[in-house]
């Protein structure tokens, strides 16, 4: 059982030490280790080693690599997964918060760039510069990472669909839902929003219309197929299986078990207006 996570205290943002490296990568872009070495001018004698075992430091910047939904080349599979726009990640075997490398990663002044892939043989996708939201003392250490380029909801909100879609909840059950790692892949979320826009499918609400710039591009994404009915691992189609919805409508969809359909909630909304 995972140990309870504890928040990571944050000091003011560092002065941008990661920018010379972060600016060389496009969020969502695909990169091999050789690409990263070349873009960052990593000398040959500094290549390999920790770069192939999870996380490496170069010129004060940490590069973190993880496999989401697949066993790493080291043979370890700790269940690294995206939940909404945050990443739940596990360190190397035996890693603890007091280890020097983990202390460095958790330090709010340390620039951390995260790369991930869903298949062990694929190149990595750059997710962006990250900050630790919480960590715990489990073995290996578990860290929740948020990203500077996204609006990140609370951890309680992120867990809502997994808990509400189950008739009963057993501690650790989320780890057994392999598809969850794919469904919460940020690329699937972006593909859904790119198709339908940041407008609620149910009520037409747009966050930018009400809140201005801070709401630009923000919307939650609803899974039309409840996780409890997925029947194990399946391939997610972000256009067919996801819909953008506002926070209120998302909550109302999950007020019923199984969740209401989009059409049912639209009908209820129209009847309530009358």
TrEMBL record:
Segments of this protein annotated with the region Disordered: 1-20
SMART domains: HNHc (SM00507)
Pfam families per record: DUF3427, HNH
Residue stretches making up the HNH nuclease domain: 187-251
Annotated GO MF terms: endonuclease activity; nucleic acid binding; zinc ion binding
Name of the protein described by the UniProt record: DUF3427 domain-containing protein
């Amino acid at each position: 059982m995972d140990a309870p996570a504890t928040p990571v205290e944050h000091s003011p943002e560092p002065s941008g030490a990661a920018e010379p490296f972060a600016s060389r990568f496009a969020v969502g872009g695909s990169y091999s280790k050789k690409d990263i070495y070349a873009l960052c001018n990593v000398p040959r004698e500094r290549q390999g080693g920790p770069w192939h075992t999870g996380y490496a430091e170069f010129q004060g910047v940490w590069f973190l690599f993880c496999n989401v939904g697949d066993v790493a080349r080291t043979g370890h599979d700790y269940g690294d997964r995206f939940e909404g726009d945050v990443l739940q990640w596990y360190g190397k075997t035996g890693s603890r918060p007091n280890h020097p490398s983990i202390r460095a990663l958790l330090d709010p002044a340390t620039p951390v760039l995260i790369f991930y892939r869903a298949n062990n043989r694929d190149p990595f996708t750059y997710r962006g510069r990250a900050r630790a939201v919480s960590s715990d003392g489990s073995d290996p250490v578990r860290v929740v990472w948020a990203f500077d380029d996204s609006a990140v909801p609370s951890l309680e909100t992120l867990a809502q669909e997994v808990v509400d879609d189950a008739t009963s909840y057993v501690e650790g059950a989320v780890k057994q839902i392999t598809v969850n790692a794919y469904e919460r892949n940020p690329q699937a979320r972006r593909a859904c929003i790119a198709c339908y826009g940041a407008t609620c499918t149910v009520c037409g609400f747009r966050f930018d219309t009400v809140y201005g710039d801070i709401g630009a591009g923000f919307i939650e994404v609803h899974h039309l197929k409840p996780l409890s009915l997925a029947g194990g691992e399946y391939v997610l189609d972000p256009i067919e299986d996801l819909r953008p919805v506002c926070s209120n409508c998302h909550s109302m969809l999950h007020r019923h078990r199984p969740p209401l359909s989009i059409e049912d909630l639209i009908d209820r909304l129209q009847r309530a207006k009358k």
